[in-house]
Amino acid sequence: xxxxxxxxxxxxxxxxxxxxxxxxxxxxxxxxxxxxxxxxxxxxxxxxxxxxxxxxxxxxxxxxxxxxxxxxxxxxxxxxxxxxxxxxxxxxxxxxxxxxxxxxxxxxxxxxxxxxxxxxxxxxxxxxxxxxxxxxxxxxxxxxxxxxxxxxxxxxxxxxxxxxxxxxxxxxxxxxxxxxxxxxxxxxxxxxxxxxxxxxxxxxxxxxxxxxxxxxxxxxxxxxxxxxxxxxxxxxxxxxxxxxxxxxxxxxxxxxxxxxxxxxxxxxxxxxxxxxxxxxxxxxxxxxxxxxxxxxxxxxxxxxxxxxxxxxxxxxxxxxxxxxxxxxxxxxxxxxxxxxxxxxxxxxxxxxxxxxxxxxxxxxxxxxxxxxxxxxxxxxxxxxxxxxxxxxxxxxxxxxxxxxxxxxxxxxxxxxxxxxxxxxxxxxxxxxxxxxxxxxxxxxxxxxxxxxxxxxxxxxxxxxxxxxxxxxxxxxxxxxxxxxxxxxxxxxxxxxxxxxxxxxxxxxxxxxxxxxxxxxxxxxxxxxxxxxxxxxxxxxxxxxxxxxxxxxxxxxxxxxxxxxxxxxxxxxxxxxxxxxxxxxxxxxxxxxxxxxxxxxxxxxxxxxxxxxxxxxxxxxxxxxxxxxxxxxxxxxxxxxxxxxxxxxxxxxxxxxxxxxxxxxxxxxxxxxxxxxxxxxxxxxxxxxxxxxxxxxxxxxxxxxxxxxxxxxxxxxxxxxxxxxxxxxxxxxxxxxxxxxxxxxxxxxxxxxxxxxxxxxxxxxxxxxxxxxxxxxxxxxxxxxxxxxxxxx
Length: 792
Ligand code: GDP
Ligand code: MG
Description:
Layout: H1 3-8, E1 14-15, E2 24-30, H2 34-42, E3 50-56, E4 63-67, E5 70-74, H3 76-79, E6 82-85, E7 101-106, E8 116-123, H4 129-137, E9 154-160, E10 163-169, H5 181-193, E11 197-203, H6 207-218, E12 224-229, H7 231-237, E13 240-241, H8 243-250, E14 253-256, H9 265-279, E15 283-288, H10 292-304, H11 310-317, H12 321-325, H13 333-351, H14 355-374, E16 375-376, H15 393-396, H16 402-420, H17 422-442, H18 447-464, H19 467-483, H20 485-499, H21 507-513, H22 517-523, H23 530-539, H24 549-559, H25 564-588, E17 600-602, H26 610-644, H27 653-659, H28 661-673, H29 680-689, H30 695-705, H31 715-723, H32 735-747, H33 752-762, H34 764-789
This protein binds guanosine-5'-diphosphate and magnesium ion.
Guanosine-5'-diphosphate (GDP) binds next to helix 4 and helix 7.
C-alpha cells in the first residue's frame, strides 16, 4: 500500500551530515528517538522537506542549515541522524496529505460572569509575542531576538470596548509535546485555565513551521485568532499571501500584524473579541482533517472520554504519557488505553511508519497544502537562497572573522562598561558623599546619625555607584540579543562549550553572569536539556559578576603598580577556568552527559529598537535597585550594627570595631582563613560579603577607616590598606595576600540573591551543594596559591 516506501528504494539515501555546503536535498526520515527526533520533526525535518547546507561554524561544528526558510544549527553528530536524498528523487507527494479541514460542533460557552476576558498568546519562540504583549498592555517585558526569552507566563491587562481583558504571554514553543518544560507549561496552562480565546502569533516569514503549532492549538477547541506577525518582513521579502484564502483553508481567522510598531494591533484585538463573542453561541470549530482512518479513531476515542478535547484525544493515540495520565481515575481508563493502543497499531501498520512521524507528516502536509494555494513566494528567489535579514552572517559567522569579531565585541562591551561607567560613577559618589556630610552636620551626634550616615547612606551608597555600569552592560547585552547576534555567538562557540559538555546556548547565561548572576541563572531557561541547565546554573557563579569588581579594583589599585589590567583579567580567566573544570567534572561524575542537542534557530538579524533597549536596561536597573533597597540595605545595617555594638566608652574607632560582634566573629574564623594569608578583618569582610559581594569593600571601609562609605576609589581606604600592619610590624597586605584575597572573593559563596535564583530554578538541594562547593573551591584555590606563592 505504501508507495512512498517503494519509491524510496529506487533512490540513493544519504546522511545529511555528508552533504557539501551549498547543496539542497530533501529529507527522507529522521532516525533516533525521543526528544531529539521529535524536535527535529517539529522544526520541519519531515519527509520531503528541502534542506540546504549553508555553512560550517568557524570551528567546523555545528553546521547551519536552511529548512522551510528558517536557519537551524545542527551538530555533525545530529545531522548524521537525518537521511536525505536528491531533490529530483520524487519519492513522495506531499499534496496527497492535504485533506482540508473537518468541522466539529462546539457547545456555546457561558459568557464570563465577572466580565473579564482571558486571552493567551501562543506561538513559536521569537515570533513577537512579547512585543505584542508590551504594546497592548503597556508592560515592559523583555523582548529578545532569539528563542526562549520568555520563560514564565506574564499577565497584563487592557480594555477594549469597555471590556477588561487579561492577556497572558506564554513561553514560545514549536509544538505542544511532552518533551520540553516550556511545551508542558503551555499545554498545562491552557488545559487548567481554559482561556476565553487563544491568540496564536505566527511569524509570517516562516509560515510553514509556525502554522504547525497552529494545527495543534486548533484542536484544543478554544476560540482562536491567528495573528500574522512580522507582516512588514513578509512584504519586504516579496512573498505574497492571500490572507482570505488562507483563513478559509485553515479554518481560522487570520489578521496581519506588525507587533513592534503596533500596525494591526487594533484589528487583531477586535478579531479576538469577536471570536469570543461568537463562542457564546453554538459554533462550528475547524480542525485539521487527518484522513478517514484517524478521524474515525478520534471520533470513537473522543466518544469514550467526552470531557477531553480533540488535542488530548489525539495525544493519547500518539502515546503521549502526560495525556494518558489524564485518564487515571476514570472508570474506563483501561478500556480507553487499550483502544488507543489498538488504534495506534492499526494506524502505524496502515501508514507503515511510527505514529509520531505520521501525525507530524499529516500536520505538515496540511499546512503545506494550504500554503501551496495561498502563498506565492517571491519568484526572484531560488531554492536555497536565504531570505533578507541574513546577509550580515557573511561577515559575522565567517570562518575566519567570526571569532575575532566575537572577541572584539565582548571586549568593547566590557571596556565601555567599565571605562565609560567610571564617569557617572564619580558623580554619584560625590553626590553621596555630599549627602552624607550634609545629614551628618544637620543631625545631632549619636546612634541615629551614625546609623543613617555610616550604616544606610554609606552602605547603600557604595552599591549605588555601580548602577551606571549595570545599565551600560545591560544596554550592550540587550543590543546583542535584540539584533539576533546572541544566537550567532552560541553558534560560534558551541564547539568550545561542547568540550566542557555543554551547549553553545550556555554561553549566553555565562556572558550575562559577568554582569550579574541572578539574571544569568534565570537565562539558563533557554536551555532545553535539564542536565545542561543544572551544570550551567551551578557554574555561572564562577563568572565574576560586576558586584565583585569594586573589591578587585581596590586591591589591584593598592597593591599592583604594573600590569593592572592583566591582573584583573587573570582573575576573570581563572573564574572561567574553574567553571570549565567544574562543568567537565560534573559531566564525568554525577551529572552524566547525555546526548546534548544543538538544534537552535538562527533568527534573521533585526534592527534593535530604542524602546526595547531602554526597557531592558531599565528593568535590569530596577532589579538591581530593588536588590539594593532590600537585601543590601538590610545587610548594610546589620553589618554596621555588628561593628557598632557593643559600645564602650573611650575606645578608638579601631578598638571599638575589634571588640565588636563583627570583630569577634572575624577572630573566630581567623584560624580558617589564616592559611590563605587573611587576617580577621578580611575574614569579616568575606562573611558580610555573603549577603552581597559589593559589601566586601564597604566592610573593609568600616574596619580600616571607621567609615562605611568606602568605595574602591577611596584613597583613604587604599592608603590604609597599604600601610596596615600586623602586631609584629609586618604589612598585612602585599601583592600575594591581595591576589589570594581576590581569588577567594571570586570563587566563594554566591551572594544571597544568586542563591535565591538557584533555589527557584533547581531547588534547595542544589543551593546547599553550591554553597559548600564554591566555598570549598575558593578556600582550596586561595590556599594553594598562597602557600606556593609565599615559598617562591
Ligand atoms: P517572542 O519570543 O515571541 O516573545 O518575541 P519577541 O517579542 O521577543 O520578538 C522577537 C524579535 O522580533 C524582536 O527582535 C522583536 O523586535 C522582533 N519583532 C517583533 N515583532 C515584529 C514585527 O512585527 N516585525 C519585525 N520586523 N520584527 C518584529
Ligand atoms: Mg517573549
